[in-house]
Every structure is written in structure tokens, then in C-alpha cells.
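Ticket #4471: structure output looks truncated?

Reporter: J.K.
Steps to reproduce: submitted the chain below (532 residues) through the standard prediction queue, then opened the result file.
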Amino acid sequence: MKKFLLGVLMMFSSLFLLGTVNAAETVTGKIVIHFQKWNGDYSDVGINTWSFPQGDPLSTQQGPTALGDKTKTDSFGVYWESGDITTTGEGSLGFQVVGFDNVGESNESANFDKKKYTNHQIDAGIIKDGKTVHVYMFQGSNNRTDNEKDPNGVVNYIVADPDKQGIMVVYYDSTGNYEEKLGVHSWGWAEGGNASRWNEPLKLFTDAGKSVAGVRVKAGVLYYADPVGTPGAIVYYGDGDNSKKTNNLEPMNKDNAAYVETPTAKGQLDIVYTVNAGNGNVSNENVWLNDAQKWSEKAFKFELVAFKAGVDGKDATGTYAANPTTVMVSTNQELTNIYVAAKTDEERETADATIKSWFTVKEITSAEGATTETYGDAINIKNVDYAKGTTNTTLKDFVLTLGSPLDNSKRYKVFFDDKGEGEAAKKHELELDLDREKPVITFLGTIAGKVEAERIIVVPWNKKFDQNLFPTYLISDDRDGDLKSYAYVPKGDFSTLNTNEEGDYVIMLQVEDSWGNVTQEKFTFRVTKDTK
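Returned output as attached by the reporter:
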């Protein structure tokens, strides 16, 4: 009997000790859930929650709570705050951001399944004792593990470390063709946030949202070191300078697009938004700090890029007519190169015809400023050139060859339509920038800067004309660049010089650009016996 009782006591003692060793630590903390909707319209936004402690502000909420005091706004979007949550870190908290078609009516009549902007099971293990943890969610994110999971994989929420300050880098490529090695070259951040070396990107990004077209949005977090120095990062895919998607992102540099004048408090993140604007990008015109609206306009609103003049007629960009039969088109988003993706000659022929069908050019027949704009018939497009003979999987630049020339005394518009459906469709129109500016002739030497009547060059009488006396000049054009070699003296009244007869001979210099804009400038050869 003693042996039996001793055995029982030992068994209970073992169970007690084992339970003590395996007991999970209980913590009490808060979470703040931030949500960003791509179009910035939160009027139909509410939440659907489960598994929050009874009595918590976020417990079993169902309805358009964006209309109530539970929902607050910030530069990221909207957010909701929990109360104190006590947990062992096991399990999850259910949280959906839901759009309601019947905002303002009773919860009982709300359709909770029609629109789910996010769909999450938040790991209870993120809660820290005595801390407030900030959770960031983007539209389209879903990490549910039940039958509502995304069949293409998790699109997760972002959790900020409550004890650190930092930035979240958001990157979006409208084609969804993210390079395998995409990441950042980074320096000066806290441990774990620095790339090992150039061309070995830190794999910072995770899937954090989805556009209405189903394209995933990437995001990742970098934390400041203590003390904060001068950290920086470059979004790229590790194939030299040409793989740069941004230039340096330097939050401590006041002259940088990512400059953070006053960093957010510990546990929160400043957001550096970026979009794919092509490779080798060093302008940082595709970078916005804490400005979700400007970023989303560029990231999700398809547009034709407006014309931007280059320097001395070189490196012009955007959408414009380079000459009467050539139209350059540039898009603000990269498009899938369906031609390169085609496998057979027949598929490539179909793909080429499809890409050509995206474009239409018409004359604007209504007066400028008219309430209703009217157009003439579509102008024949003979050919559309793009990166056809390459391995490029995306497109954003096109060259249209027209069957009939444009007239720069008229106005024209180019239309783009990929024939897509719904919000995923890409459609835009833009008036073409035509060249209506004449070339500029600038005289040098002795007649530089003088008006026509004072442009006098003395020529010795009765001697063979010295070609070196012909004035030197420069000719520049806003589109064609250097046109010096195209200048000539046209036949007529201003083309004759007789060195055997004293007098003034007015000479005309003429040049014409590719649009037919003509510039004429005159000067005078004065033939005289007195050359002193």
C-alpha cells in the first residue's frame, strides 16, 4: 500500500511540475489596427470581428463602424484601437475590414460577405505585456487559414515593433512582374536591416495587399539604429545601377524625397511609398512620404505620361508627336508584354494586333475650351513599335507610325484602351503636344547679339570672297536639337554677293525643323574699298 501511495504521489507531483514548466506566460497589452483602402474612400467601411475578449471595444463588432467613434483617421487611412487584451499568446483574433452597401442601416441587414477589403486572423502572440502594438493592413490582404484563404497564398499584415521607430517601404509594380531578387540595398539601420553588399539585395518585401486587378503590393520595414544616424535604402533587384527602382531613400536627409522631419513615436511607422517607374531610376519622382493619396493615384490610376521637354532637343519624355507621322506614347504603369509571352508565330501575330488595337489618334474638331469635345475620324496607325525583339516582360513606351501626317495648326488626341473590364481596365486619353516652335538661330562672332540692321560684315572689294567671313552661328530646336548642318541660303533676292561692286548685300539664312517650322535670319555683307 505504501508503495502504491508513493507512486500516486510521484505521478501527481510530475504532472504538477510538468504543468508548471509548460505554462504559457500571460501578457496584457493593446493593439491598434490601421487600414488603407486604395481609393481613400472610407464611407462604406466597417469591421467584422471575433475572438476579441468580451467587453473589448473591438469585441464582436459587426457593422459600418467607420461612421461611429470607434474609427479614427490618420495619414495612413483609418484605424481602430483595442482595450487591454490578456492572452497567453495562443490562438488568434479575427478581424475583417468590410464594405457595406447599406451604410447607415441596421447591422442585421448588412451583407458581411459581399465586400471584404481585408480578411485576417491576427496572431495573439504579437501582443506584448504593457505595450501598444500597431498593426498595418492594406486592401486585399488575407491570411485566413480556413476556407476563405487566398488560393494564391498569404497576403499578410505588417506588425511594428513597439520598442522601435522606423519606416515601412511600400513598392508596387502594376504588372505584378516582381523580380526574383527584388529587395533593397540598405545601410545605417538597426541590426538585420542592412544589406550585406552591393548586388546582394536584402529581401525586405512581403506581400501586403492586392490591387483591384489582383496584383500584389509589396511592403517591408526598416528600423532606426540607436542612436539614429544617416540610414538609407535603394529599391532594386541586384543587377547593377540599371536595376534601381528608386534612388537613395534617406529619411534623415532634408533634401531627400523620403525625408522624415519628425519621426513617428516608437511602435509606429512612417510610410515611404514607391511605384515601379522603370529600371535605372535615379529621379525619385516615384517616391512619396506618408502620402497615400498621391501614391495611389500613380500606382492604381492608369495614365499616359504628359510630354516633358529635354535639354537642347534631347531626351524628351512622355507622350507627344516627335514629327508629323511619329507619335511617342509613354504610360505611367508598366504593362504586360503579351507579345514576348506568346509562344507561337500565330500567338505573336495576335498579340501584336492586340497591342496595336490599344491606340487611337483623332483630330479634336471642337474649339479649345469647348464644353463638349468632338473628334474627327480615327487616323490610320500603320505600325506600333515597342520592345518586341527583347526578353522584356513589361512595356511602358511605344512608337506609333501614322498613315497620314499631323498638321501642327490643328489639335489631336491619343486614346489608350486595353479593353479590360471594371476597375482593372486601363484607359486614358491625352492631347498630343505638337511642335509649334520655330528653331532658334544664334549668330556668333562680330555680329553676336545685334539686331538685323546692325549685322554688318565688311568684305574687301575686288577680291575673291573669303569663306571665313561667313558668320558663325548655332541653331537649336526644342525637338530636333542641333540643326546647324541643315541651315542654308535660299535662292532669291537675299542670296547674291558681288565682290566686284561696292554696296550692301543682304543675305538670308534659313532652317526648317521636322515639323516644317521655318526660321529666317538676315545679315549684311558690305563690299567696300575701305576695309580699315
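Triage note (M.O.): checked the attachment and the full C-alpha cell line is present. Confidence is low (pLDDT under 50) at residues 1-6, 8-21.
Status: closed, working as intended.
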